[in-house]
Write a structure and sequence with these properties.
Layout lengths: L26 E3 L4 E3 L8 E9 L1 E2 L2 E2 L7 E10 L2 E8 L3 H7 L17 H5 L13 E5 L2 E5 L6 E3 L6 E4 L10 E2 L4 E3 L4 E8 L4 E9 L6 E8 L9 E2 L3 E6 L2 E3 L1 H7 L7 E3 L5 E7 L5 E7 L7 E8 L2 E8 L4 H5 L15 E8 L5 E7 L2 E6 L2 H4 L6 E7 L6 E6 L4 E5 L4 E3 L3 E4 L9 E9 L4 E8 L5 E6 L10 E4 L1
Antiparallel strand pairs: 1-7, 2-35, 3-6, 3-36, 4-5, 6-7, 8-9, 9-10, 10-11, 12-14, 13-14, 14-15, 15-16, 17-18, 18-21, 19-20, 21-22, 23-24, 24-25, 25-26, 27-28, 28-29, 29-30, 31-33, 32-33, 33-34, 34-35
Bound molecules: cobalt (II) ion.
Length: 475
């Protein structure tokens, strides 16, 4: 395969470190070279967000989670695949173009007090760099980070539309970039944390056609936990409070980067806060041994009193330390994880858990539209047998069996399930993933048959795409 390598994106590395090299080029390609066969029924687009710019003003950003957000879009029509990538025109991006890092972030210090961050969510010290995930709210599409300042974009052109303006007065400092969708109300469901002398978690629903958030529940909390995602079953919302907590008053005064204000106190254990979706009442607080987690997989009621919560567990939060950047890549290897099922006895209070599969996995996806909040069979994940993600894994959570895809020098990202038309089986469809072929010096879009987990096709991108977090298939 011959590539035009005259751009600034000529490969600097030929191993996993290439995934942590900045990509500055924005491009659009009508038709990517495809090997294999892309199903003709795929007619939407896979849009992902990646931290693409990892140096600002000649200085390496401190942490992978602070990379400046770029959108990547793989469009499908008649078995052909188009490609486009654009930076999101955030305040953080505008600063970065000027070589400035003014707004702080997850772990990269703007070298000034963050006191204002706690004073006002629209303080200029709060980052709006939406590099974590995307969501659709009715006809609006947003990119998100963990401050409540999502940015709307055009899913076809990837043009930035602007900050999503809320028509309510809900004040908050942090949120998750992993909202749920309530199909009955057609609402995006999420939580925010408001830092104060008496802080609180606020769970809310944002109706598809509205900019006014509907408060579902408020929970006072003395020291909020760092929570990257949460669970939603048929009847409940589930916050898993890991013992990685912040004292908001110390946060206001420390001058340290955001995440470095959170303290790991394993003696406190992990607490599941289970909230009734209808009434907003706390059903209970259920304690278990300490663990850390970014991603919930699914949650559902198995009986009137048994709540199942599946998630990816770490022994502790050292994954955050591992993802600080040095010149070439992350400082450390991915610590081992476990795909776990927690079963909460809502009446009796007991919490027990079991491991659903062997091996280190992350970035879980399911057939969300049909299986979220319901009993399910299949989870799709990226897995690691070494220092970094090097395989895709499909786990049958009922049987404990797994299928894997891997290829030499290839490092896949999050696997996204797309249901086939009229296919009623849970794994009837394809799995899409953007894979870095480090030896070849570029990324490709991989299409797997979701049932057999065999490769159907790949479409080669014109450059490497830095490793990213999450994306969505937009129909
Ligand atoms: Co995430």
């Amino acid at each position: 395969m011959v590539w035009n390598m005259t751009t600034s994106t000529v490969a600097r590395q030929t191993d996993v470190r290439l995934g942590f090299a900045s990509l500055e080029e924005e491009t659009a390609v009508d038709r990517l070279p495809v090997s294999g066969e892309v199903p003709a029924w795929l007619t939407g687009a896979l849009v992902r967000v990646t931290p693409a710019l990892l140096e600002v003003g000649g200085r390496r950003l401190a942490h992978w989670f602070d990379g400046v957000a770029m959108l990547n879009r793989f469009g499908f029509a008649d078995g052909r695949v188009s490609y486009r990538n654009r930076f999101i025109d955030s305040l953080a991006y505008r600063d970065a173009k000027e070589g400035e890092w003014r707004h702080g972030g997850f772990a990269t210090d703007p070298c000034r007090s963050i006191f204002k961050r706690v004073q006002s969510m629209f303080s200029p010290d709060v980052t709006d760099n939406p590099n974590v995930n995307l969501a659709r709210i009715g006809e609006r599409y947003i990119a998100m980070t963990e401050t409540p300042m999502p940015i709307e974009f055009d899913p076809e052109t990837l043009d930035t539309i602007g900050h999503l303006a809320y028509a309510d007065s809900l004040k908050a400092h942090v949120t998750t970039a992993h909202p749920h969708h309530d199909p009955e109300r057609d609402e995006l469901v999420n939580y925010v944390a408001r830092f104060s002398r008496v802080s609180e978690y606020v769970l809310y629903g944002l109706p598809a056609a509205s900019s006014r958030r509907r408060v579902i529940a408020k929970l006072p909390v003395e020291r909020p936990a760092y929570m990257h995602a949460f669970g939603m079953s048929g009847r409940h919302l589930i916050l898993a409070e890991y013992p990685l907590r912040v004292n908001p008053l110390k946060l206001a005064l420390s001058g340290k980067p955001f995440i470095e204000n959170y303290v790991w106190t394993p003696e406190e254990g992990t607490k599941f806060q289970v909230i009734d979706r209808e009434t907003g009442a706390v059903r209970g607080t259920y304690e278990t041994e300490p663990f850390f987690c970014f991603h919930h997989v699914n949650a559902f009621e198995r009986s009137a009193s048994e709540l199942v919560v599946d998630l990816i567990a770490y022994a502790d939060p050292t994954i955050i330390d591992a993802l600080y950047l040095d010149e070439h890549g992350p400082r450390g290897a991915i610590p081992s994880t476990e795909l776990r099922r927690y079963v909460i006895d809502l009446a009796g209070g007991a919490v027990r858990w079991e491991k659903l599969a062997e091996g280190t996995v992350e970035l879980p996806r399911i057939d969300y539209a049909r299986r979220n909040a319901r009993d399910y069979a299949y989870a799709y994940l990226a897995g690691s047998g070494g220092d970094w993600l090097d395989r895709l894994v499909k786990v049958d959570v009922r049987e404990g069996t797994r299928r894997e895809w891997s290829a030499p020098d290839c490092h896949p990202g999050e696997p996204i399930f797309v249901r086939g038309p009229g296919d009623e089986s849970e794994d009837g469809g394809v799995v899409l993933s953007v894979v870095l072929d480090a030896a070849a010096g570029h990324s490709f879009l991989l299409v797997l048959d979701a049932g057999s987990f065999e490769e159907l096709a790949r479409a080669a991108a014109p450059h490497h795409i830095p490793f990213g977090f999450h994306g969505q298939y937009l129909r």
